[in-house]
Amino acid sequence: MDKNELIYDWNRVNREPVAVRRVEFDDETLRDGLQSPSVTDPPIEKKIELLHLMDSLGIESADIGLPGAGPRAVADCLRLAQEVADCKLDIKPNCAARTVRADIEPIIDISEKVGMPIEVGTFIGSSPIRQYAEGWSLEMMLTATEDAVKFAASHNLPVMYVTEDTTRAHPDTIRALYTTAIEAGARRICVCDTVGHATPEGTRALIGYIKSIVADTGEDVKIDWHGHQDRGLGVINSIAAFEAGADRLHGTALGVGERVGNAPMDQLLVNLQLMGYINRDLSNLMRYCETASEATGVPIPITYPVVGRDAFRTATGVHAAAVIKAFRKGDEWLADMVYSGVPAKIFGREQLIEIGPMSGKSNVIFWLERHHIEPTEERVERIFNHAKQCNSVLTDEEVTQLAMRDA
Hints:
This protein is of the alpha/beta class. The protein has two domains: about 20-295, Alpha-Beta Barrel (TIM Barrel), CATH 3.20.20.70; about 315-405, no CATH class. Helix content is about 45%, strand content about 10%. The chain is built from 15 helices and ten strands. The protein has helices at about 45-55, 70-85, 100-115, 130-135, 140-155, 170-185, 200-215, 235-245, 265-275, 285-295, 315-330, 330-335, 360-370, 375-390, 395-405, and strands at about 25, 60-65, 90-100, 120-125, 160-165, 190-195, 220-225, 250, 315, 350-355. It has an eight-stranded parallel β-barrel with strand order 1-2-3-4-5-6-7-8, surrounded by eight helices.
């Protein structure tokens, strides 16, 4: 039977067509991600390993740090930029900077030392609440914006102008800041949902407004979206931003970041792949997440999508029976999809049938066959009856011991 006839995709019903265009990604794990108060700032060897994994996933750019933060930040940014240059990686480095020359100067120095351009992501707060707390006037913000962007551009560095808290900023302020930055030489602007305030509807409205600002300047300027997870909307807002016209989406491995974190890069890749917006080899996604977890000390939740331990495990009899029947048909695609909305195989994983108190005998028989143990009636009964008395799924060691009791 045609696979397309086996799944009716309601996701595509009444879906507005999106113009076919390229979506890019900017990985913030090594900068914004490390602002989490619970992470460990990894040694440079781990940062390099993560950089290579980002490159293997086709991620176009990475924020490698804020060298204005101090000597260690400078050293790490220089080493990471040198790694990109020496290994001829496809991923392009960028560095964060406040809208002050003192933050931009070390980026210029690093760029000159490695002999390659490094994008400057120069940022400033934009919302009224931030202006009030800081005591900033719009005139001061515009002056700082113009000076910082012109300074970086005068040293032949590409500039991404970043407005923090854009999703709570006044339209007139946004227009003034972006217009000034673009006229000063910025060729990429970044819209930030810094405190995770936005909804998908708000995201679409904001990106649409910013597209009109760019159009009014007459310049070829790309739009970035940088989202956070405070309302749990980081992924859907990023997708909405792309569909509304954003060119590049920011995220971090496992969503690490300040407070409850950033939009998870891994989930963005998964969803945009399944939606047909990208077509990449994501077989290294598991390794990328595991490396990020090890490097930062942030554990992967067992129920985390795609890479969590339980993502493709089931011990429930009815569910497992459907998967087992698909395996019996010799159809790996069917087994992968009959009880899963995400195909495990393309992410280097597989569907696992386990044995627990909610399992049926088919779970036991299948497990034994998969482990090359003859599923005799006595063995099946022994394991099945034991599982029914337990309060959790049996480990492989426990099942093996029960199976071998009569050996």
